[in-house]
Amino acid sequence: MRISTSQYYESSTSTYQRNFANAVKSGEQASDNLRIRTAADDPVGAARLLQLEQQSNLLGQYGDNTTNVRNSLGASEGVLNGISAILQRVNELAISSGNASFTDADRKANAQELGQLEDQLYSLMNSRDENGKYLFSGSRGDTQPYVRNSDGTYTYQGDQGTLNLQVGDMLSMATNESGYAVFEQALNTSRSETNLISPAVDDGRVQLSDGQVSGSTTYNDRFRSGEPYTITFLSSTQFKITDASNNDVTLEATQGGTFDPASSNKMISFRGVDMRLAINFQPGDSANPDAAIAGHTFTLAAKPDSISGSRSPGNSSAAQVTNASITDATAYNSAFPGGGAILKFTSATDFELYAQPLTANSKPVSTGTLSGTTATAAGVTFDLAGAPATGDQFSIQVDTHQTQNVLDTIGQLRKALALPVDQDPLVKQQFQAALDSAIGNIASGSNQIASAISDIGARGAALDVQAETNESLKIANTKTQSSIRDADPAEVLIRLNLQQTMLQASQLAFSKISSLSLFNQL
Fold it and tell me: Core-most of 76, 407, 440, 519, by most CB within 10 Å?
């Protein structure tokens, strides 16, 4: 077969360039130990490397999120520990204030210290993180969770949500605590009330406190099903309790409805409610003490829901809701939104009632028209001061008395301690009832905060486990990428040496063959 000189040169050049390129590539691999630089080097390996790189980026983000969550949990735990310490001191002050040797001046001094503790607690419950976000406002990090109202009470403005970050492929963790869960769910022990119905004018002989819920399960299962109750004193040593159906349930009370009027600590416990009883005989009662006490009658029931309304800052009018009361219990129980409502005026006189939160898809639960200055919706009557305008909205809050935040508890205790009681037995008994309520509510609030701290600890432990898992995955990812992307140094060096030898042989062969010519034989 004949090969032209030009063909030979072209073939030799092409082969040499290819061998030279291979040698250069092997040299690069020997220099940086990378087997795959482009997808052309290994399409399957390059695709796998891309997946592994994406996983590595996710693991890196998980690591950053883990750090953020750990910092946030640490900040929340530190604040909650501070709050717990304050509540411990508040509890000590409450217990000491019940000391029989304490005077009005002693209790007033405790009230002043409580005021300072209340301010500290208010500040801690409105704490921010390093980014300026509120720790306890739920998912509304820019909204101050607690505000102090004009009447000295406190309102939670956050929501029930939390801010979550992904810390693993299958694990998302909350970075903060919702003030609703930590502070607003402390059980309120003052959920019952008594009212004297006979005699029509209180003669001061029999005083019965509103009562404290000592057993929530019994209260919910037994007490609520039979209210309202009637407590009738039959003599100076005996009373009778009947339920709403007039059934005699006296045997469920302590000592079967008997008591010692001379005892200094008379307590009636009935279906999870403890009531303090005070018998105050008047001059001349000693002749017939039974007749003096018999006939005193009280009602006992759960406190009814209280409702309040506040205007929206965006209202075009200055109208206010001055009072709200339940006027139709049946309609209220069946229709009024338990989580709060929005009263919205569609004209100067027509209104609609919505469940909170109000969205574009919300449907009104009730509609109506103003009657003078009152609006009635879902069994509740609202009194308004001023004329509302079209589009005005009012936020309606419902207090079921089932829970109470610790700020309100401390505020109520502070006010009770500031009142003089030494010279008034009736006020002293009311103070003792307020003290019982405060001690119970502080204990409930402390338990709620301890539960939140425990939950933070559990999340921290889970976070540590996930961080270890992520680190193991990261190490495995790095090893897998290395096994796919990196070259074998020994194999590369052998191959490079072979390719360099082949290049030298190719150069030598080319020079020898190119010198061959028929003209050399002439």
Answer: 76
Residue 500 is predicted with a pLDDT of 66
Closest CA to 355 of 330, 372, 371, 378: 378
- Amino acid at site 8: Y
Which residues have CB under 8 Å from 132's CB, separation 6+? none
User: What is the third-level CATH fold of 36-187+406-485?
Assistant: f41 fragment of flagellin, N-terminal domain (1.20.1330)
Using DSSP, state whether 403 is helix, strand or coil: strand
* Calpha distance 195→56 (Å, rounded): 69
Q: Residue 2: what pLDDT?
A: 58
224, with CB counted inside 10 A (0-12, 13-18, 19+), is: middle
Rounded CA gap, 9 and 501, in Å? 21
DSSP 51: H
Distance CA 385, CA 301 (A): 32
CA end-to-end distance (rounded Å), the chain: 23
Cβ atoms of 118 and 146 within 8 Å: the answer is no
Out of 10-24, 108-122, 308-322, 428-442, pick the least confident.
10-24
- CA–CA gap between residue 188 and residue 165 (Å, rounded): 33
Report the range of poorest mean pLDDT among 17-26, 152-161, 385-394: 17-26
Distance CA 442, CA 114 (A): 13
pTM for the structure as a whole: 0.74
Can you tell me the distance from the alpha carbon of 294 to that of 282, in angstroms, rounded to the nearest whole number? 14
Q: Is the pLDDT confidence value at 119 over 90? A: yes
Strands in 380-385's sheet, in edge-to-edge order, are: 320-326, 380-385, 374-377
**Phi/psi of residue 142, nearest 5 degrees:** -95, 0
> HSE on the CB side for 398, CA within 13 Å?
17
DSSP structural state of residue 7 = H
Spatial separation of the C-alpha atoms in residues 445 and 406, rounded to whole Å: 6
195 phi and psi angles, rounded to 5 deg: -140, 130
State the pairing for strand pair 297-302/229-233: antiparallel
Where do the domains of the chain lie? 36-187+406-485, 192-303, 311-399
Distance CA 439, CA 450 (A): 16
